[in-house]
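Readers of this paper often ask what the protein records in our data store actually look like. Below, we set out a record of this kind in full and without editing:
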Amino acid sequence: MLISFDLDGVLMRNPFRDGVFPAVGAAMAAVFGGDARRAIEAVTEEHFRRLSESRQDGGQVEERAARRAIDPYDWDSIIETVAKSRGLEGMPPQSVATMVEYYAGRPGFVACTHPTVRATLSALRRDGHRLVVVTNGLSVYQRPVLEALGLLGFFETLAAPDLCGHAKPDAGAFYAGAGELRAPEAVHVGDDLLYDVAGAKKAGLLAVWVMPPRLSRGLQLASTPPWERPAALQRLDAWHAELARSLDRRPAADRALVDWARPDAAVVHVGELPVLIAHWQQGAASTDSAASSTSGAAGATLTRARRRARKSYRIPAVPLGYAGEALVRWFEAKKRDLPWRRSANPYAVLVSEFMLQQTQVSTVIPYFERFMERFPTLELLAQAAVDDVLQVWQGLGYYRRARYLHEAARTVVARYGGRIPDDPAELRRLPGVGPYMAGAIASIAYNRPEVAVDGNAARVLSRLVLHWEPPGARSARELSGWARGMVPEGRAADFTQALMELGSQICRPREPLCRECPLQRLCAAWAYRLQAELPVRRTSPPVPLVRVAAAVVADARGRVLLVRRPEDRLLGSLWALPAEPLADDEPWEAAARRAALHQAGIQTEVVQALGETQHTFSHQRWRLRAFRMRALPPETLDGARSVHQSSAAEAPSAYGALEVRWASPAEIPSLPMARAFQRLLQLDGTIEARRAAP
């Protein structure tokens, strides 16, 4: 089969929008009131004026017809015409072909539209198909981009207006690429419903439409084969809107193409082409076989086979091996010097992975170094008291991680003889270790070919392949599958860290540094300018604000009343001031008195309001207000007591404490305590700000 391709939007992204046009606009801005955008708009208007003129029926002689095919796409001539109309000579400052060649050789200006492009072209050639290009871009502009992307060698012919004298939708443009072949032996693949699809159909070719992401995103296409999509699309309002968009600013003559704009198949990306072409060829062979049969058995078999194909169809997985190799090469040159990367110590990897959950690298580094200095081996960590672990962790937040790390260390010593397992299944048996962390430890510490897809990695992968699935188990499986296909043999440790590094440093949530990205020329989101829309995010409910009153109660010796929070509650196992959330319409002072009573069994009265601070959790935000309180006699606690005391008549608090104690100002900084309560004690003057945890 002969397959002809349009280029821009199908196989590649050219450098006009990001390179050529901004440069031309800047050069011409002076005659447009300093507005480069107005200059570019004038250039675009001249393009559409020429396009309209070229589409008028005039019966021109062949030479004039060829000139009219070229004129709308001759950007040198277009720019020169606009500049001279404003009295500006010497435009463009250099030929557009020279500019294209310059930008094509620089990172960040050209790309394949999808990571499947190169592998797809290779597969089609390997299967014996002939590949040609049919484009309206002049060859002098298109060839440098194809060469820069390494795609030029796949094609037998480059049919462009300046080479063949025809432009789509003229049938002559398609015949310049397909020769005498017609459907079903010839198919054209393009993204324009009028000039590609309608033009190819009028010329007698099969037409495959590469859907724009804005349309394919909203459809449930994962299980719908490309050959069945046109019928489904034409029933949707989005289809008609796409037709209307295609007609926008086009010549009036193009309206006659609408009735032809019915593709034979529609693909999300060109990676679906091998499956589509094979289906067509198998269908034709099966149909011939069925037609030659004297019974209906062959036809019935064909029908059942097609039904099975519909049920089992999935958009082909993306071959990303070359992307993984490029990523690892980038990592070798650009990786940061992080303390847990300086040795292949599984214990260091374990500690770093616990700390890096929901916490930035820059925040983790000093805590990691202090933690490793205090607990240099897994055995020492396992032997430590949990209070010592929490005290070193103090200030890093998400304290449950510290307790899980401590429990995991004890489990490794007790169950595995002090050796951290390298099997993800065994790793997941450790407290606090889920699928992501198990994959990260196995790959980074032991170079096992496992994947770890955290938020950073998911963002990279979603943008790379235009993954529109919302977060969830299905999305995680698909992303993990793509990541697994990227891992270079023997380089799992580097790959896992490289993927995280790229997401953290380059493929950022906002304003990604695409021109510095080693995968930029493969990135579908960059090619379609959809970085800001990926990955898909679930709409998060507003984070509720909880008002919490805290009691600062001191005894005659200046000691402060502290309570240890329950392990299964927020800030579990940490020491804190007695604190309670306000009930509806409850005064702050009443909640503070209730906190001291419920959590320590002490009757108090308010002496003074001290001030406020805030503490943010992943799912709620606390607004804490502290009050200096006076204990009413008799005081019910002493330094040796460590039991929960409350009035039997009072209902137990949801924030009830496990232990209570009086602590001197000198003792408090050595106790594991959340920073929010440290800040409240600073307001009271009980401890100095410089002594609080960092």
